[in-house]
Design brief:
Immunoglobulin-like, elongated, mainly beta, six-stranded mixed β-sheet, 52 strands, four-stranded antiparallel β-sheet
Length: about 600
């Protein structure tokens, strides 16, 4: 049997182990290198550092490593019996730990949105790499944040108040340290001011004490000023309005200014005060209408603000139907009937007080004829007189015209003596002969418009497409009237028995036809507009309507008395008024006699 211990061999399989085993070692730490090999008998060991002998022994211990300990460590193994040797090498790298990094900035303060921030991170030590962190999240390139090639610089474009704080982490193979958080000093604002009224209500009762408080986010704190109609009222965050009244009505502007950012911004609030209801009146265009023929327009007028209007008939709320229409302060009945006779009342109220007015409306039925006048004559006279009163409410009073031609046994009555129409509209000339007719002629300024002998009709070329005739009554419709049609139109009709009779109806043009749009334009920031008529500020209501921005004033059914108008443009720091603007309104003549 062979004794293996007697075999002479080696050394072979030389290995070096390092403790701690890592790619690099921090200076000041300890490390050991241990060498092993397969050899019989046991070999001798010696160590070389960078090719120079260091010591003998199987292990080398290096206390308090320094940078100079970086290099190649070689273990040589020798067998004195076999006279053979072998070796192995390991590299040791020693690095100095990084220092605590420090962040510096290109400026001590910044203006939001305007400025660019450049942050630089500096740390000492070999092979340092940098990482930037915001709100515990590692920053990468993109958007407003840009890193330099070595990552030691962070650039923030268009800085925001919410940016930061930032930290920088410096590291190498043996250490890592993080800087103190670095906050940015960012000036911003002012933001849009918030106005808080106390008490908060759409309209105030006279005598109430009102406080307006203005707040605007800003760094440094914004300087606040109050303006009314472009005039400075006071400075400060609070505006007290004791014992509020109608003189305090208006738009109050809070302007915020930041003297570092150089920015102005403002917001506003409307202060409205309840004005008591007063001077309630109810007017009717026709107090004695005829059933199934006439219409009645009731208008309820009053003073005050924030008005609520209710209509009543014989103390019962009025219900709208196909004849009765209610639109705010207007009540229209078209046509009337006898059942509409009674007391009409409008009640106007707001949160302060109320008032009312009433009127009596008597509707006449068409009377039966028991006299020498024909039914047509009676109806014609009644309607003519009512029409005179109705139109008189707008432009004066009118006198019914009727020309009598001769025989008492045959008459022709106009349904109304005067016809008022807007330019471009259709004029209806209605006449009522007392008996059957056979022929007739309509003339205007001594020139025939139409001549007829039923069933034949003669119309001049200039009226060919504008005339419609009723052979039975002789009534005429003149279409698309123009300025040249203004004047007296006379009809002469011949009865079947040969009697002739004439009637004249006057055609006039009226106002109320057109709608006017006035637009006010001014340049400047935060402009607000106010319209005035005869030195009185205009508010929405009735025929006058303001656009949402107050730049446009719409006048529906223009009247000769409308205007002149002015427009006042104002900003938080100034106010200017336009030249007076007068409307050119065509209207019907007014004889000047009461109806």
């Amino acid at each position: 049997m062979i004794n293996l211990n007697c075999l002479l061999d080696g050394p072979e399989s030389v290995q070096i182990s390092v403790s701690p085993d890592q790619a690099a070692h921090a200076s000041g730490t300890d490390a050991s290198l241990t060498c092993s090999a397969v050899s019989n008998p046991a070999p001798e060991y010696q160590w070389l550092f960078n090719g120079l002998f260091q010591q003998s022994g199987q292990q080398v211990v290096i206390a308090a490593l320094g940078v100079n300990d970086t290099g190649s460590y070689t273990c040589q193994v020798f067998n004195n019996v076999t006279k053979r040797s072998s070796s192995s090498s390991r590299n040791i790298t020693v690095l100095t730990p990084v220092s605590t990094p420090n962040i510096t900035s290109n400026a001590s303060s910044f203006i939001e949105h305007n400025d660019t921030v450049v942050l630089t991170c500096v740390a000492t030590g070999p092979d340092v790499s940098y990482t930037w962190i915001e709100d515990n999240s590692v920053i990468s390139n993109g958007g407003r944040l840009e890193l330099s090639a070595t990552n030691n610089t962070l650039t923030i474009t268009g800085v925001l108040r919410a940016d930061g704080p930032f930290t920088c982490r410096a590291s190498n193979a043996v250490s890592a340290k993080t800087s103190e958080p670095f906050p940015l000093n960012v000036f911003y604002g002012p933001d849009i001011p918030i106005i808080i009224p106390e008490p908060d209500t759409p309209a105030y009762t006279p005598g109430t004490d009102v406080t307006l408080t203005c707040y605007a986010q800003s760094k440094p704190a914004a300087m606040l000023s109050w303006y009314l109609q472009g005039v400075l009222v006071q400075s400060g965050d609070k505006l007290n309005i004791p014992n509020v009244s109608s003189k305090h009505i208006g738009r109050y502007v809070c302007q915020a200014f930041n003297d570092v950012t150089g920015r102005y911004i403002s917001s506003s609030i409307e202060i409205d005060v309840l004005e008591p209801v007063g001077n309630v009146s109810l007017r009717s265009t026709n107090s004695h209408p005829v059933e199934q023929r006439d219409s009645v327009l009731l208008t309820c007028s009053s003073q005050g603000t924030h008005l609520k209007l209710e209509w009543f008939f014989n103390n019962h709320p009025i219900q709208q139907n196909d004849r009765i229409t209610v639109s705010g302060d207007i009540l229209l009945i078209d046509p009337v009937n006898v059942a509409d006779t009674g007391v009409y009342k409008c009640i106007v109220s707001n949160g302060l007080n109320n008032g009312s007015a009433e009127t009596y409306l008597e509707v006449f039925s068409v009377p039966e004829t028991r006299s020498h006048l024909t039914p047509g004559a009676v109806a014609g006279i009644v309607v003519g007189l009512i029409a005179a009163c109705l139109i008189g409410g707008v432009g004066g009073w009118l006198i019914a015209r009727k020309t009598s031609g001769g025989s008492q046994r045959f008459t022709v009555e106009p349904a109304q003596s005067d016809v008022y129409v807007c330019i471009g509209g259709d004029a209806e000339f209605t006449v009522r002969p007392s008996s059957a007719i056979s022929s007739g002629t309509w003339e205007f300024k001594s020139k025939a418009i139409v001549q007829w002998l039923a069933p034949n009709l003669v119309i001049p070329p200039e009226y060919k497409s504008r005339v419609d005739l009723n052979f039975t009554s002789g009534s005429l419709v003149l279409r698309s009237v123009n300025e040249s049609d203004n004047g007296d139109d006379t009809v002469t009709v011949t009865a079947v028995g040969g009697a002739q009779e004439s009637a004249t109806i006057t055609l006039s043009f009226i106002e109320h036809c057109d709608t006017v749009f006035l637009t006010c334009v001014a340049t400047g920031p935060d402009v607000s507009y106010t319209w005035s008529e005869d030195n009185s500020v205009i508010s929405n209501g009735g025929r006058l309507e303001l656009s949402a921005s107050n730049t446009t004033l719409t006048i529906t059914g223009v009247l000769q008395s409308d205007g002149p108008f002015t427009c006042r443009a104002s900003s938080p720091v100034s106010a200017k008024t336009s030249e007076s603007f007068q409307l050119n309104v065509f209207y019907q003549p007014s004889p000047g006699h009461p109806c």
